[in-house]
Amino acid sequence: MARVCWPYFDPEYENFSTRINPPRVSVDNSSCNDSTLIKVDSVNKPGILLEVVQILSDLDFIITKAYISSDGGWFMDVFHVTDHQGNKITDSKTIDYIEKALGPKGQITEGSVKTWPGKRVGVHSIGDHTAIELIGRDRPGLLSEVSAVLANLHFNVTAAEVWTHNRRIACVLYVNDDTTSRAVDDPNRLSVMEEQLKNILRGCEDDEKAGYTSFSMGFTHIDRRLHQMLFADRDYEGGGLTNEIEYPPSFKPKITVERCEEKGYSAISVRCKDRAKLMFDIVCTLTDMQYVVFHAAISSDGPYASQEYYIRHMDGCTLDTEGEKERVIKCLEAAIRRRVSEGLRLELCAKDRVGLLSEVTRILRENGLAVSRAGVSTIGEQAINVFFVRDSSGNTVDAKTIEALRKEIGHTMMINVKKIPTTAKEPEASGWAKTNFFFGNLLEKFLA
Questions:
Q1: Are the C-beta atoms of 415 and 346 separated by less than 8 Å?
Q2: Is residue 311 part of a domain?
Q3: What is the pLDDT of residue 251?
Q4: Once rounded to an integer, what is the mean pLDDT over residues 196-210?
Q5: Closest CA to 198 of 101, 271, 123, 133
Q6: Among 247, 190, 179, which Cα is nearest to 216's?
Q7: Three-state SS for 366?
Q8: Residues 370, 363: Cα–Cα separation, whole Å
């Protein structure tokens, strides 16, 4: 029998094109009057668009326009960006970071992520921690119960991000031992914690889908991981739930899928209320659904955004059946709505201490408030918590409740209360809270 000899492939061949054609990045503040132009030219590779958009989103940039083209072996992007006040990006350190992060020496790879000790989820790490994933059926007071269990088991929450959508809750928490401030790797302690958290997530129901926990998540950006968790949980199928918030017509995304016969693409058109990280949420979802973006055009028209993507599945197929189209529309609509938070925004800043999150969430629960989204971070000795809340019926929080909150917690921490505007892209910050204190936004600011 003749022996089959396969051709030899140099393992470095895959990176050869990148080495001879390294990415070119330019930050241009002179070509456009009202925004900074960031141009990226690079050899094309799977996931590169999400990689670039993720970096820009983590810097809290508002993308007002973008043009993407990646047909063939080359990837070309132009982004028009501003800060949250609508100003150009002029800080020299920020510009230097952009050029390094998107350039040949700063490409985001698994190897670079693994250099962070104790890494589990996200591109950011705060000290030595254990990362926990939770997903389950949402209900008023659930976050308070979770944080109380962790406090009772002597776990300190150093950072967390919580999303709710269609009566499902997903969160990633970073915890450590409350005495040693080290990651907890004792399997017995972790097993006890997992069992108690499962019981809370399950509540009074026997349905296994009611909730689950996990301690090993791999190397994934925290916002992307939350999208993946809710997508895997099929939260996009939860339309029509009676207890869900009724969004006004202006908030409902208008999504269409058509076939582009000339080039053999499926064209996805999205028009919805504009907000920060909108492009990231859409590109993230398309990528995790195994679709490749070949061309895209993004623009903002006042309070609304128009985004158009020309895609194919990774296997080269377009969206040909009505079932496929309907699924993509539902998934994109869910991705857009997961980060939408109506109602009241509470920003709390205090000296960090063990059990602080448990105490704050207990007070919110006792005042009849349900948390729809939350971001928790610890920077040095300061704990910075942001909660989006509404009353347990889904209505706007009344003035009496706000005053009660101020009296109860105002003497131990700084509190800033803001109603979410219905037209602005993001609530305008005031006083000490000039940053969106979500763990996914910390980036290098506090880790350098």
A1: yes
A2: yes
A3: 63
A4: 74
A5: 133
A6: 190
A7: helix
A8: 11
What distances in angstroms separate CA 164 from CA 18, 40, 88, 272, one per listed residue? 40, 34, 33, 20
CA–CA–CA angle 419, 379, 390 (5° rounding) = 25
**CA 121 to mean position of chain CA atoms:** 12
Choose among 172, 184, 165: nearest CA to 376. Answer: 172
Considering the entire predicted model, what is its pTM?
Answer: 0.83
Number of domains within the chain: 3
What are 205's two structure tokens?
């129901």
The answer to whether residue 117 sits within a structural domain is: no
Question: d(Cα 21, Cα 162) in Å, to the nearest integer?
Answer: 40
Give CA–CA dist 305/279, Å, rounded: 10
- CA 260, distance to chain mean position in Å, is 31
Confidence tier at 249 by pLDDT (50, 70, 90): low
> What pLDDT score was predicted for residue 112?
35
263 neighbors 310 (Cβ within 8 angstroms):
yes
Closest CA to 151 of 175, 169, 122, 171: 175
Instruction: Using a pLDDT cut of 70, give the percent of the chain over it.
Output: 77
Crossing angle of helices 48-58 and 278-288, rounded to 10°: 150
Q: Are residues 43 and 59 in the same domain?
A: yes
Whether 420 and 303 share a structural domain? no
Q: Residue 82 and residue 429: Cα distance in Å, rounded?
A: 16
Q: What is the DSSP letter of 170?
A: E
Residues 268, 355 share a domain: no
Residue 437, both tokens? 């204190």
Question: Contact at 8 Å (CB) between 70 and 48?
Answer: yes
Whether the Cβ atoms of residue 123 and residue 113 lie closer than 8 Å to each other: yes
Helix 222-232 with 48-58: angle, nearest 10 deg: 120
Same domain, 366 and 228: yes
Beta bridge partners of 10: none
How many angstroms separate the CA atoms of 299 and 307, rounded?
6
Phi then psi dihedrals of residue 269, to 5 deg: -110, 130
